[in-house]
Amino acid sequence: MTDETTLDDTESVPGPQAGIRTDIPHSARMYDYYLGGRTNYRPDREAADEVATIFPGIFRAALENRDFMHRATRVLARSYGIRQWLDVGSGIPTRPNLHEVAQSVTEDARVVYVDHDPIVLNYARALLRSTPAGRTAYVQADATDPDSILSDETLAATLDLSRPVALSLNALMHFIPDDRDPYGIVSRLMAALPSGSALALSHCTPDFAPEVWAEIEGVYRRSGTPAQVRTREEVERFFDGLELIDPGVALGHRWRPEETTRTDVPSVSDEDVSLWAGVGIKP
Known about the structure:
This protein is an alpha/beta fold. It has a single domain, classed as Rossmann fold, CATH 3.40.50.150. Helix content is 37%, strand content 14%. It contains 11 helices and 8 strands. Strands 1, 2, 3, 4, 5, 6, 7 and 8 form an 8-stranded mixed sheet that branches. Strand 2, helix 5 and strand 3 form a beta-alpha-beta unit. Helix 1 crosses helix 2 and helix 3 packs parallel to helix 4. The longest helix is centred in the N-terminal third of the chain and has 22 residues. It is globular.
């Protein structure tokens, strides 16, 4: 990545949240950098490059995570009749966004994005545009406080919680360590959704390179972001009480690869992806 493709370090983030700190790394901007985005600053790039030095596959892992989200969204819309999504930990918008994928299958899809970072709100206002038949909305809330999400008036005005909703938790839960009750958070969110709802979740794993991922956790912690990657068994626990659809919890690039719309899909190793992903349906 070159500085020409990213924000200048003297440039302020536009809009009412101009006081956002750019002198320390942020996980959402680091992820944006992994994806080749422009919404990142020098501290984000330096921390991300430190991760890439430890684990060169991080750029491919980020792309595979993004592609899993696209495939899972299309499958839920086309094969399971889902018309509503709650995307928690949405991060900085990167086209195609979840609502664009969903509305490409069903124009009336409704999506509520949730994130706690002011910079995400800033860009969400600028980029999240719905089809006339559908609707998108943004809620600024912390994933570790699920009740604040579920009680939000914007969510209530956008989603009908008496009808199935897909809860999308992509590359989020590895930033919620055990002392923040990650399983309880997912359980609380799913408990508010009716039968026929779904959980689509992806999560980084140390299963293929435990020492490497211990170092990566350290990079994020030193940057002020808690991190805890989990084994396949630990990721499967998030789906307790749900009916996993085929192929179950699988590596991101192996979850229904035939559903991809990408034209450039190079071969990739399991270690380079290091990401478990799955979709479960609530009985």
